[in-house]
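To fix ideas, we now present one chain and its tokenised fold:
***
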Amino acid sequence: MRNAECIRQWSVLRELEASRRETIASLARKTAVTTRTIRRDLDALQTAGFPIYDELIDGKRFWKLDTRPFKALGDTGFSLAELCALYFSRTLLECLAGTPFQQDVASAFGKFEAVLTPRMRQFLDRLPSVLQAKGEPAKKRRDGQLDETIARLIDATLRQRQATIRYHSFSSNRTKDYLIEPYRLLYAQGGLYLFAYVPEYEQMRTFAVERIARLSLLETTFQPTQELAPELWVHSLGIGINQGPPQRVEVEFTPRIAPYVREREWHASQQTTPRGDGALVLSLDVCVDEALRSWILGFGAQARVIAPETLVSDIAAELKRARAGYER
């Protein structure tokens, strides 16, 4: 009930800003409530500090929102409603921004908060409870060294400067020094990843920024010789660090889980084929990597791989090992 009231009052505020003036009757019609409710909403918004006032024109009473007190906001090119929308959706932005950028996001919202009165902030602070987001698990490392590493990598990428890094690889379980040419940084699944060309191997490599133990920027520059797709890991369901070429993958889902699978877009290439018993076959053109295997295994007994045969064998062997662990 409280959430519905909050959303309705937000709608009233937007209507007042979007139009030159509104009557109580028109606001009631647009929000599908009584005029008495609209009067209470206008009272609540005025109490919150929004400059709403009424005026009599040709014997008819209209309500308006005075945007002059928000001239500083107007200079940004955003309307009051747009900026307020950004403010109350900050939980989403902070969630998507991830640990490395949360401080900057908080600073940006701090500047906006300075323009609002305390009562306005109190009103807007109710809105995030209406819409929430749960982010991906973030990496544990949260220190100034990481922030400095990110800043220097951005500088190296923009200025096309070569760099040397000391990096620990989980796959090989060793720490090694690399000469790299940084191309792009990408935030995904709670971590930041660097795409860089490694002259020693004459190929692009992906490095988890959190595992870069040491970074030195060189004075030497490089000319990009590799082409990166606008969207990286386009053929992976997750972080395809060791991805190969895409293959046709077919997975059958039981009738119980089929509606959940059908309602989502897991990949742009997906195709669905319903079975007569309510089961569903999902076809994808993706690379067979750890992200795909983890995704399939996450459905447990509700999913069965049909193709390719190599993936069928891999998943069956993994399930056998998992069962052996429980039998012990």
Notes: The first strand starts at residue 52 and ends at 57. Residues 14 and 81 are 6 Å apart (CA to CA). DSSP finds twelve helices and eleven strands in the chain.
